[in-house]
Amino acid sequence: MTTVEDRPLPAPEAELEYAAALERDAVQLRRIVDLLQRVDVDDPLLLDVAEELDALSEHLENPVETVTETIRNPGWRHDPVSGVENAIAPPIILESQPDGSVTAGVEFGLPYQGPNSFVHGGISAMVMDHVLSAATTPKDGPIFTAQLTVRYHRPLPLFVPLTVVARLKEREGRKIWATGEIVVDGKIAVSAEGLFIQPRPKAAR
Ligand SMILES: CCCCC/C=C\C/C=C\C/C=C\C/C=C\CCCC(=O)SCCNC(=O)CCNC(=O)[C@H](O)C(C)(C)COP(=O)(O)OP(=O)(O)OC[C@H]1O[C@@H](n2cnc3c(N)ncnc32)[C@H](O)[C@@H]1OP(=O)(O)O
Questions:
Q1: Cα(82) to centroid of ligand 1, in Å?
Q2: Which member of 4, 66, 108, 145 has the greatest number of CB atoms within 10 A?
Q3: Which residues line ligand 1 at a C-beta cut-off of 6 Å?
Q4: Which residues form a coiled coil (predicted)?
């Protein structure tokens, strides 16, 4: 079976075109997920939606091979938090600040709801993990979350602009600690501390 890696790479211009198309596709897919949370349950059109989506999936599945174990497009465009090409990502767009911290602005809608009108706590933890790890990620290789402590100070509302911030706290060899917060209306709603570890080089394991 040919894997995605075996296929010839598209020319760079085509690659950019595909990347832009994937980004647009992800936007539309997020829109569908959102609309399915708020659709009128009596809408007769709802009965056809699954068939239309099925037809689209059939088209995408064939003749393109399904990626199983291979990672098609590692990196920020594809990850589940800031990946603009990944429809399950909100997406959260990270910005590096001159003081070394990482910030992001985000607003969550209904697909991220936990308690009525508030963001699901697991989503907040995912965001903290990601943004803290971005604040620690060394330029010379990957980093793994070893511990993450999340404190929920107040419920995080849906449909409100939120600010996420994270910073490196301390580094000791391969271990890096980071802290961060999700802020709403100038108040801390969620705070987190994480330990991130650069794994030992393979030869040393
Ligand atoms: C625009 C702004 C952007 C800025 C950023 C720019 C670029 C960034 C680019 C790319 C970033 C890419 C990706 C980031 C994206 C997402 C990240 C999400 C994070 C995750 O989604 S990640 C998945 C979940 N995560 C795991 O899947 C970890 C499973 N696990 C392991 O892979 C190992 O477990 C590991 C590697 C953690 C350690 O393994 P190891 O073999 O290296 O560790 P070892 O035994 O040598 O210990 C060394 C010292 O760490 C201490 N230690 C070890 N483990 C500990 C623990 N858990 N708690 C407390 N202390 C611990 C020991 O006690 C010892 O301490 P001491 O030296 O003091 O004795």
A1: 20
A2: 108
A3: 79, 94-96, 102, 129-130, 133-134, 137, 144-147, 174-175, 195, 197, 199-200
A4: none
Q: For residue 117, how far is its CA from the centre of ligand 1 (angstroms)?
A: 34
ipTM: 0.91
Residue 76's nearest CA partner among 54, 62, 93 is 93
Q: What is the DSSP letter of 1?
A: -
* CA 184 to centroid of ligand 1, rounded, Å: 29
**CATH code for the part of the protein at 93-204:** 3.10.129.10
Which residue CA neighbors atom 18 of ligand 1 most closely? 130
pLDDT in tens, the chain (205 residues): 344 445 455 566 777 788 889 899 999 999 999 999 988 888 888 889 999 999 999 888 876 666 554 445 556 788 999 999 999 999 999 999 999 999 999 999 999 999 999 999 999 999 999 999 999 977 667 899 999 999 999 999 999 999 999 999 999 999 999 999 999 999 999 999 999 999 988 766 6
* Domain ranges within the chain, ordered by starting residue: 1-90, 93-204
**How remote is the CA of residue 106 from the centroid of ligand 1, in Å?**
26
The position carrying tokens 């979350």 is 145
Q: Which residues contact 59 (CB under 8 A, 6 or more apart)?
A: none
State the Cα–Cα distance between residues 151 and 115, nearest whole angstrom: 16
Supply the pTM of this predicted model.
0.89
